[in-house]
Amino acid sequence: MAFVSTGLPNGGRTAHFRIEYDPTLPAGRALAAGLLRTCEDDYRDMATWFGIDLTDLPIEVRIANQSGGASWSDGVTGPPTVTVKPLVAGVATLTQVRYLLVAEVTEIFMSAQDRGWFAGSDEGSKGEGLSRFLSLQFLLAHSLADSTPSGFGVTANWLNSARPNYVDNNPDDIAPDVITGCTTLFLCYLHDQLGFSINEIIAAGADTLGGVYRNLTGRSDGWIAFRRLVDAHYPRPDVYYPAAETVFPVPTLTTIFSPGSVTTGYSGTGRVVLDRPALVDIPIGLTSDDPALVGVRPAVAVPTGELSAEFIVTTTAQPGPFSPKTIGLHARYAGRTLPTTVQIQAPQLARLTVVPASVPAGTAAIATLTLARPSLAGDVVANLLSEAPGFATVPPTVTIPAGQLTATFPVTTLPNALPFGTAHADLQAEYAGRAVTVRLTVTATVVAGRLAALTVLPATLTGGTPARGTVKLEHAVPTPTVVGLAAVDADSAHPPLPGEGSTIASTPESITIPAGLTTGTFPIHTNRVAQGTRHRVTIIAGAVVTRYAALTVLG
Predict the structure, then answer these.
(1) Potential cystine with 474: which of 181, 413, 450, 453 (Cβ 3.0-4.6 Å)?
(2) Cβ–Cβ under 8 Å, residues 108 and 123
(3) Are 63 and 32 in contact (CB under 8 A)?
(4) Residue 130 burial (CB < 10 Å; 0-12/13-18/19+)?
């Protein structure tokens, strides 16, 4: 295979690299030109991480028309050569080329630094994990991607295995397998969970990753702490495929939201919440204190990238009525259990309506009782009540059949031959401790004016002086209204009997208020009384109801 630098500035040379490409690679020259523009900045990142500069230069970089990653070889008589094979699904991008170049050149830095990351003739599983970890951090730092390129992830290999210990031993393995999956994920643990910087991790190089952990923390429980944390938050046998390779920092279960009240036989929706978006699908365990009455699935998964997940709460249909039942629910994750409750209630009354809403006395109406949801376990028998049985009556109960939402019942209003003001009958339905009401208006069938007020002016006068009374109806009626009138001495609670009228003041026996009007006036005559005396007279007017007004006559 022949590699060329045709068309590249300066023959493909930079301070630290010499770049060539396979002319059969589609857009090979463009990829090489893009790498030529970025490779020195990428080199400075790596030199900063390791704190050294390479001396065996320039590194020969060859971009091949192949897939499979990258490799490097130490030149026998010259600088090392890196071969990049960037094709993924037949496509190569500059990001993939840069990612693979960083992965290989960091291994060259490990070898040159000689601080325990390079094992013998190659980087070994520990160094392979570091190169994969660093190339991912490179992508993240430059916002080139939020995960490794497709096909290059390895941590899922270890997460979905028996999870053997490759922290305390360092086999000579550089394949994308369970071993390098373990080493890569442990380095993510040091950085993302424990918060150590890239420079600190590299500077803490040792024979094993357990030694790196000891150099960083001063403790020797690296494998135990790592494995326990992973097992607690990502338990087997569930499988995990972290999109960004890392599963750290681990999330914490913070909240379980109740579905609140659920009608028996129906289902509700609860929610579990984490303190940070899930990096893989997170299984949250669920239990019910009374699974025969309230059921939940054993677990619900919080999807990758989400903070929460909904779960369904099912209930077993029970015949009513009954008082609400409170059942405990629990969510558990990574040793933490959070409680909540769900309230199971009998079918609930939603509303009571009556048609028509206003009827003349003696006329029937139809009321409709509606449930929030149909009963799934037997009929609903609701108790009925009228708070004004003198005007309207209802049956003692009404039955809504199972599976039905409504039922109707008659409302009977009593005929009344006497005139009365508009009446209101509040109707009530009750079931399982919940009541709903509606108001029925009952109007009189006998049309008559109803007296609302009586006034006398002036209220105090000298005997022999006339006064004027005014009567007012509650509202106009279509027929004339006769208002009876009388005057009695002192206070009286009733109209006078014959011969009991006042000896001091007199009124007409009645006045007539014409149809359509609401007021009428009448004269009040007074007699002279002894000088220096004071007499109280009560003026009385009546039309359906009786009204009174006081008149004081002075001598």
Answers:
(1) 450
(2) no
(3) yes
(4) buried
CB 440 within 8 A of CB 365: yes
Alpha-carbon 293 to chain mean position: 25
Please name the helix (run of DSSP H) or strand (run of DSSP E) that holds residue 398, with its range, or none: strand 397-400
In whole angstroms, what is the distance from residue 62 CA to residue 2 CA? 10
| Element holding 283 (H helix, E strand) | strand 282-288
In contact, 352 and 367? CB cutoff 8 Å: yes
Phi, psi torsion values for 312, nearest 5 degrees: -95, 135
The helix/strand/coil state of 219 is coil
Q: What is the mean pLDDT of residues 273-287?
A: 97
> With b meaning 16 or more CB within 10 Å and e meaning fewer, what string describes 89-121?
eeebbbbbbbbbbbbbbbbbbbbbbeebbbbee
Model pTM score:
0.74
What is the 3-state secondary structure of 90-157?
Answer: CECCHHHHHHHHHHHHHHHHHHHHCCCCCECCECHHHHHHHHHHHHHHHHHHCCCCCCCCCCCCCHHH
44-93 residue pLDDT tens: 999 999 999 999 999 999 999 999 899 999 866 789 999 999 998 899 99
State the Cα–Cα distance between residues 189 and 200, nearest whole angstrom.
13
The backbone region for 192, taken as left when phi is positive above 0, alpha when psi lies in -120 to 50, beta otherwise, is alpha
Distance CA 531, CA 511 (A): 33
Contacts of 513 (CB under 8 A, 6+ apart): 449, 471, 473, 480, 481, 483, 519, 520
For the chain, the straight-line distance linking the first and the last C-alpha, in angstroms and rounded, comes to: 140
Residue 493 pLDDT > 70, yes or no?
no
- Give all strands (DSSP E) within 474-533, no chain letters: 481-489, 505-506, 510-513, 519-526
Q: Is the CB of residue 383 less than 8 Å from the CB of residue 397?
A: yes
Angle formed at CA 203 by CA 202 and CA 206, multiple of 5 degrees: 80
Helices (H) and strands (E) in the chain, counts: 8, 31
The string of DSSP codes covering 413-476 is E---SS----EEEEEEEEETTEEEEEEEEEE-SS----EEEEEEESSEEETT--EEEEEEESS-
What domains, with CATH codes, occur in the chain?
A: 9-233 (1.10.390), 253-345 (2.60.40.10), 349-443 (2.60.40.2310), 451-554 (2.60.40.10)
The DSSP letter of residue 497 is P
- Under DSSP, the state recorded for 382 is E
Across 272-281, average pLDDT: 97
Alpha carbons 272 and 151: distance in angstroms, whole number: 32
pLDDT for residue 492 is more than 70? no
pLDDT for the residue numbered 420 = 73
* Cβ contact 519:475 at 8 Å: no
Quote the tokens at residue 550. 């006081």
| Phi, psi dihedrals of residue 475, rounded to the nearest 5° | -160, 160
Tokens of 323: 């008082």
Q: Angle 362-363-369 (CA atoms, 0-180°, nearest 5)?
A: 125
